[in-house]
Amino acid sequence: MNRIDFKFTKLKEKEEKALIPFITAGDPNLDTTIDIVLAMEEAGADIIELGIPYSDPLADGVTIQASSNRALKNGAKIVKIMDTVKRIREKTQIPLVYLVYYNSIFKYGMEKFIKESSDSGIDGIIIPDLPIEERKDIIGIGEKYDINIIPLVAPTSKDRIKNIVKDARGFVYCVSVNGVTGTRNDISTNVEEYMSVISEYTNLPKALGFGISSPEMAAGFKSYCEGIIVGSGIIKKIENGKSKEDIISNVRKFIRELKMA
Fold this sequence. Notes:
Elements: H1 3-13, E1 18-24, H2 30-43, E2 48-51, H3 62-73, H4 78-89, E3 96-99, H5 102-108, H6 110-120, E4 124-126, H7 135-144, E5 148-150, E6 152-153, H8 161-165, E7 172-175, H9 191-199, E8 206-209, H10 215-221, E9 227-230, H11 232-240, H12 244-260
Helix pairs in contact: 2-4, 2-12, 4-6, 5-6, 10-12, 11-12
């Protein structure tokens, strides 16, 4: 069983919700990425998203864009990130997911990317700009290497949700608002109605992300979904850290607060 599926099964048995933090691989550097992943698991993270830095991340706000720029400046290329995941796998079996833009996969080679992801220890891949015409092929390759291709749906998806979640595996990444990632004080989407529509078309766990930036917000939305995704709030802890130790301490504390919520 894929680690993601196993994790959601175990969480359901314990009546817990999944906390899914996002960080950009290589921000501030790849060695620190390993330590951040281990600290987040220790603090209660259930699944971890690793963003592959990209020069034009269309779905991301300024905070994650800046983290991508820092990672790229420090040499975080795909081949080095794959090696970093192998090093992480020497120390933990927490489910790991790549968030990667389609052009990066296309340039690297679709099957090569997915095979190497699987070989390194990745369990799922989120592609926010995956062309609909490429979905069938990439889902097929994902099944071949036991990689869950995780779909994104948005409040504007509506009539397309059925097709978006068709043949998907792992969980559904439910974008909470229209627009890009980033911390927000509130979310105007009718989340209860939105989750209900998605549930009409799939039994996969639903994880809500984009804009959830505090334990209070996580607590407010947890009843509508099986998981909460937090990215920009964590990236800010990394960005503002004065040292590696400071970063690890601040991230660990924040993750613990989110998991408790």
